[in-house]
UniProtKB/TrEMBL annotation:
Molecular function per GO: oxidoreductase activity
InterPro entries tied to this protein: AKR, NAD(P)_OxRdtase_dom_sf, NADP_OxRdtase_dom
Protein name: NADP-dependent oxidoreductase domain-containing protein
Phylogenetic classification of the source organism: Bacteria, Pseudomonadati, Pseudomonadota, Alphaproteobacteria, Hyphomonadales
Superkingdom of origin organism: Bacteria
Entries under PANTHER family matching the protein: GH17980P-RELATED
Domain NADP-dependent oxidoreductase: 13-317
GO cellular component, one term: cytosol
Length: 330
């Protein structure tokens, strides 16, 4: 990995799906204030994607980049092209009032190049720090998975490597919600990094822990998205309980309540433990919670700075609420 050492991400960055109006609409001004607050709090790494708000998240990040003088690192993704909607109905992908485009999977070499060129325009940049191949894997593609995996290995990743060689990005990797596809790709090729969403969290990490250990051995840096399991571990009292982008199942609600009760005895917000737990694994280079307002950013920043007694982690292990092998903050 020739350029691996040339990029140092902050411990905590900002996931920008919410800036694409995920679940509900926010204004351009609110998005701008969110990005401003993130920069002020040292969360100087932003992860976005063409899919988020069908280009809206990238547009808003681009508007911010055009006005800020401070250093900000950006990752975006390839694997979908945005086609102008025209008179066609815009599909509901969970984004409220998205931009008038229809996202379509395209993992061909030409599709990767076209996707990146679209991102360059929306972000107003020549190059990004990290470029990720978005949403490959069996969970997303079902029966088409093997075909798409082959195309990813033969076309997508070589095209991304070419963009890296041209100086258009410093790291390349995957941005996915499943571990199996990461293992399948790493069997065949080297990657600089992985953005793994919702699979290594305080709530559930037993099955992903050996994989993160292997990433650490191989020098593949892991960026953790979905540290709150789609909000479950940071839900305010009486707020909606979401897990994996849907209504939280009973087992997850019960386990989150057990974790919360232990944290409460130590005066620690569950969300603070959730973020700091993810960051403690040596393979993890950055954790990127999502935020939709400056207040949420400041709240996240407070959680990352919360002092947590070692006794809390010891009790969670004793009660088998976290794996005895899981690295915890020192």
């Amino acid at each position: 990995m020739s350029q691996m050492e040339s990029l140092t991400l902050p411990d905590y960055g900002l996931g920008a799906a919410g800036l694409g109006n995920l679940y509900s609409e926010i204004s351009d001004e609110t998005a701008h204030q969110t990005l401003q607050a993130a920069q002020q709090q040292g969360m100087t790494y932003i992860d976005t994607a063409p899919y988020y708000g069908h280009g809206l998240s990238e547009q808003r990040v681009g508007a911010f980049l055009s006005e800020t003088s401070g250093q900000v690192m950006v990752s975006t993704k390839v694997g979908r092209r945005l086609l102008p909607a025209g008179d066609t109905a815009i599909p509901d992908n969970g984004f409220a009032s998205p931009a008038p485009f229809i996202p379509e999977f395209d993992y061909s070499s030409a599709g990767i190049r076209a996707s990146f060129e679209g991102s360059q325009k929306r972000l107003g940049v020549e190059a990004v720090d990290i470029l990720l191949l978005h949403d490959i894997g069996e969970l997303t593609h079902g029966d088409a998975h093997e075909t798409i995996l082959r195309q990813a290995l033969e076309e997508s990743l070589p095209e991304m490597a070419a963009l890296k060689a041209e100086g258009k990005t410093r790291w390349i990797g995957l941005g996915v919600n499943e571990i199996a596809v990461c293992e399948q790709v790493l069997e065949k090729t080297d990657l600089d990094c992985l953005l793994l969403a919702g699979r290594y969290t305080l709530l559930e990490h037993e099955t992903s822990l050996p994989f993160l250990d292997e990433c650490h051995r191989r020098g593949v840096r892991v960026i953790i998205g979905g540290a709150f399991n789609s909000g479950l571990l940071a839900a305010p009292e009486g707020g909606p309980l979401r897990y994996d982008y849907a209504v939280a199942p009973e087992w997850a609600v019960r386990r989150a309540a057990e974790l919360k009760a232990v944290c409460a005895r130590y005066g620690v917000p569950l969300a603070a433990a959730a973020l700091q737990f993810c960051r403690a694994h040596p393979a993890v280079t950055s954790v990127i919670p999502g935020a939709r307002s400056a207040d949420e950013v400041r709240q996240i920043s407070g959680w990352t700075a919360t002092r947590i007694e070692p006794a809390l982690w010891a009790e969670l292990k004793e009660r088998q609420l976290i794996s005895t092998d899981a690295p915890v903050p020192a």
